[in-house]
Design brief:
Elements lengths: L1 H13 L5 H5 L4 H19 L3 H14 L6 H14 L6 H22 L2 H15 L4 H15 L5 H16 L7 H20 L4 H15 L5 H14 L4 H13 L6 H13 L3 H13 L3 H14 L3 H17 L3 H14 L5 H13 L14 H15 L3 H15 L5 H6 L7 E4 L5 E4 L4
Antiparallel strand pairs: 1-2
Helix pairs in contact: 1-3, 3-4, 4-5, 5-6, 6-7, 7-8, 7-9, 8-9, 9-10, 9-11, 10-11, 12-13, 13-14, 14-15, 15-16, 15-17, 16-17, 17-18, 17-19, 18-19, 19-20, 19-21, 20-21
Length: 440
């Protein structure tokens, strides 16, 4: 019955004219007959899971009418791998089939394109069947990544990074900084995929964890310093290198190193930007150069356009001014941050701390006036707690409220100064806010 079906299809194929459509099924009417018959035959065997019997008609399809169906190339991978897995074939035959598998990917690219993913598939199979030939398959991985970054599956990006490490450590074909470069490439691609395809988050996050684990031996501050110090000293005006050093050391929390400071400072000299100003602000703050840090954070805040990053710059600016005892300037910066993110309690926690620091010397010399700043401080901590659901902010706000409330003036002292619980009270000095009297 099947044979009759095949003959019927072959007759139908004879009717196909030799034009663009005919080229899909072969160059001649005879090729078309052969193509359609073998397509039907291999597909029947393939659907039945009989991959060994599917092999010969499938191979004829690939030979006679390579443009007929991209599924023939997809199915062909399964068929060839089943052929390769046969125990009774010779090693020479197995090797020949493996080479056919590699060539199949090239032929698929030739007729159906999609170079990046197909080269990645080829490289993955080469890594499996030719484990000791990393010098051959790593360049194919690199070509795949260059040709189709956004289309490479997350699992293949992990294999690419595995191949990178082998290429450096086993084949000795490149320096260790290739591992750093390709780590940046792999992690950036995976982060982009995670943002664009959240439905696939579990697999992508698993791939990201694998890449991080593979990179871990090279990610220590000491190792990164060793890798990049010589490069920095050799080409101190290479801004691409400087950006790479700064970005990587920051991502791995290696900002205490001399290399990070030197590279950041040099980058800001050669190519000043809001980002480099921000980095310099962080460095100066770490070195307790608070006034200088404030200058850099001010420059960064004014130059940054993205709201989230601008908010962070103003928060850091507020902290720098606070550390430099410039309380009014710190409050101004905190309020600017608050305007950028009305749901964040962080700016109000900063202001609360500023007010508490001012208690005792901002608002008068009496026992009560020395403590009125704590009322304003608690107000700000309560505000932070009321607008921000972050558990850390909530916990810090509660701690400040408890701490500052313990410094409220005594009820007897307030009575002696005719200051009554629950009344409004204007806190003078630089604070200049109206609050509510509270005593203990």
């Amino acid at each position: 019955m099947k044979k009759l079906s095949f003959i019927g299809l072959a007759i139908a194929a004879l009717l196909i004219p030799i034009n663009a459509k005919a080229q899909k099924y072969g160059a001649t009417p005879e090729d078309s007959v052969k193509c359609v018959e073998n397509l039907a035959m291999y597909r029947e065997y393939f659907k039945a899971g009989d991959y060994l019997n599917a092999y010969n008609p499938w191979k004829e399809v690939i030979k006679t009418c390579p443009r007929s169906s991209e599924n023939a190339y997809i199915h062909g991978v399964t068929i060839l791998k089943q052929m390769i897995a046969q125990k009774e074939i010779t090693q020479a035959r197995r090797d020949s089939l493996i080479e056919d598998l590699f060539a199949l990917y090239d032929q698929r690219i030739q007729y159906f394109g999609n170079e990046g993913p197909n080269k990645a598939r080829k490289a993955v199979d080469m890594a499996f069947y030719r484990k000791n030939a990393v010098e051959t398959y790593y360049p194919i991985f690199a070509e795949a990544i260059a040709a189709g970054q956004e289309k490479i599956p997350a699992s293949h990006i992990v294999k690419y990074f595995e191949a990178t490490i082998a290429y450096v450590n086993v084949a000795k074909k490149a320096d260790v900084d290739l591992i750093v470069d390709n780590y940046n490439t792999a992690s950036t691609l995976l982060e982009k995929q995670l943002a664009e395809t959240p439905d696939n988050a579990e697999k992508i996050k698993g791939a990201m964890a694998s890449v991080e684990a593979l990179f871990a031996p090279y990610a220590t501050c000491e190792k990164l310093d060793e890798i990049f110090t010589k490069k920095f000293e050799a080409t101190p005006e290479d801004t691409n290198l400087l950006r790479k050093i700064c970005s990587l050391l920051e991502s791995k929390r290696c900002m205490d190193s001399k290399l990070y400071f030197d590279a950041t400072e040099q980058l800001h000299k050669l190519a000043p930007s809001a980002q480099t100003a921000y980095l310099m602000g962080n460095l100066c703050f770490t070195k307790k150069q608070y006034s200088k840090a404030a200058e850099y954070f001010q420059e960064a805040a004014e130059g940054i356009t993205e709201t989230k990053e601008k908010y962070k710059a103003y928060i850091n600016l507020a902290n720098a001014y606070s550390a430099a005892s410039s309380y009014s300037a710190s409050r101004n910066a905190a309020y600017k941050a608050a305007s950028l993110d009305p749901t964040s309690g962080e700016p109000y926690l900063i202001i609360a701390a500023l007010y508490a620091k001012s208690a005792g010397h901002c608002c008068g010399d009496t026992p009560v006036l020395k403590r009125v700043a704590y009322w304003a401080a608690v107000d700000k901590a309560v505000k932070a707690r009321s607008i921000d659901n972050d558990p850390d902010v909530q916990a810090r706000a509660n701690k400040l409220i408890g701490t500052y409330s313990a410094y409220f003036p005594k009820k007897a002292d307030a009575f002696m100064e005719n200051i009554i619980d629950g009344n409004s009270f204007y806190v003078g000095g630089w604070i200049g806010e109206t609050t509510t009297v509270r005593t203990r």
